Amino acid sequence: MHRMDEIIRYYSKWWENPKDIRNIVFESLNELVRKRIPKGNGKRALDIGSGKGRIVSYLLEKSYKVTAVEINPDFVCKLKKNFPQVKVIQEDICNVSFNERFDLITMIEVAQNFNKEELVQLLRKVNMITRILFINISNKNSLHGLWIESHKFKNNFVHRLTPGQFDAILNSTGFNIYYRKGVGLVTPLSLFSGFRGRLIPIWLAKAVNRRFDKYATRFCHLYYVEARSLRKSLEETQAER
Predict the structure, then answer these.
(1) Model pLDDT for residues 134-172, shown as the tens digit of each residue
(2) 170-228 tens-digit pLDDT
(3) Is the pLDDT score of 118 beyond 70?
(4) Concatenated DSSP letters for the chain?
């Protein structure tokens, strides 16, 4: 099966699926992003990998003019139906060319679908068209990451990085990190694939994360970063002259 078909098939089944025991961590990430998005006041935002539109809804809530890129045709239909004011592009982000810059780009729960070389190329491209980037990775050093690797639950299209590796990639592609936060020190784990045979109850994971996430940024399941492009736009350069 082609990698992109595999990705579409997987997310069609598991994206925001109540049976996914990791949802408490993903919901915490969503709430963090919602809180961190600044007021848009008509500024332009690009959401990469929009899924069913959770982050899109937050950007609209903060008064951004939103463009969404999503490859899953079912999700694209939902986006167009639920957000008629949004420009929706059905395409692999690597194949999309933009002739405009965005004040903010959000790339939530997407980076793990690219290997290191692909991610570097994508971030270089993103750096050319934005001032601010909100992004996260699935942390290789987390309890969840170590468990998935040891039990061979990881899908072939998933690529995990350590926070240090990700920081280095962002720096090498022209970004300066100004905010970091870990989400999900403890993720409910399962004995079997398909999230069967739960080991850690959801209530326990919630209690631990609520208390300890803030102390364990580099060891949480999700590593969330906000970064500023060091590249000045042509307009900014001309204004300084």
Answers:
(1) 999 999 999 999 999 998 888 888 999 999 999 999 999
(2) 999 999 999 999 999 999 999 998 888 889 888 999 999 999 999 999 999 999 999 99
(3) yes
(4) --HHHHHHHHHHHHTT-TT-TTHHHHHHHHHHHHHHPPP-TT-EEEEES-TTSHHHHHHHHTT-EEEEEE--HHHHHHHHHH-TTSEEEES-GGG---SS-EEEEEETT-GGGS-HHHHHHHHHHHHTTEEEEEEEEEBTTSHHHHHHHHTT---TT---B-HHHHHHHHHHTTEEEEEEEEE-SS---EEETTTEEE-S-HHHHHHHHHHHGGG-GGGSSEEEEEEEE-PPPHHHHHHH-
